[in-house]
Amino acid sequence: MKSILKLKTIDDIEKELSIIIECEKKQKSDITLSQIFDFLAESIELSIQGIGYITKRTTVNKLLGKYKFAKLISKGHYTKTNQIPGFPPKDLGDPESAQLRLKTSLTAFKLHSGPFAEHPVFGGLDKKQWEKIHGILASFLFGYIQLFGDEKLRFVKDRENKKERNYSDKKQNQNHHQNKKEAHGETKPSGHNSRKWKNKKKSHYKGNKNQGGGPK
After folding, report:
1. How many domains is the chain built from?
2. In this structure, are residues 158 and 24 in contact, taking their beta carbons and an 8 Å threshold?
3. Is 145 helix (H, G, I), strand (E, B) or coil?
4. Is 97 within a domain?
5. Which pTM value belongs to this model?
6. Residue 120 in domain
7. For residue 189, what are the domain limits?
8. Where are the beta strands (DSSP E) in 44-90?
9. Which end of the chain is more exposed for a tag (fewer CB within 10 A), N or C?
10. d(Cα 77, Cα 179) in Å, to the nearest integer?
């Protein structure tokens, strides 16, 4: 099953999860929400908590793992369930707890700076690489959920995100111009020094005027 979703970051996963939570939904297959949320949460948890658990890997397996990782990143998606070890997990039958677990794991990943665990197939990965894997996995798993009324919600959220980006860019440009002015000495001194600067400028002007033949 190829998902049309393209989730690349943890933020993308969080945004898509918020849409799933708010929308009316139903299962596309016998995979439940609880299984989807729990499996994705467990994957994220293991990437930051599975430190010290190292699978014995031969040189061939290491090279094969790197090849498989590069191939998956190049494709950008899983195509079959059997490409994902351990999926589907046992259904615990508690989607609300699974949802909370997933939210918590996403926050924990964002706050975690390292080190990171080895992937059972791909081997050692850094944070950015793990984030890509989580995004691809989430894209695949969320494809099992059929949503209703999500188009309008996506439009509203995209518009809000666009406003936030525009505001952030505008603020950044203002700071950049301000720093540029300060670097070139174009800003006037403030406070007491400002008055001295004005007085110096004024007396200098009078001197020039007298030297030019004006009345003394």
Report:
1. 2
2. no
3. strand
4. yes
5. 0.68
6. yes
7. 164-211
8. none
9. C
10. 43
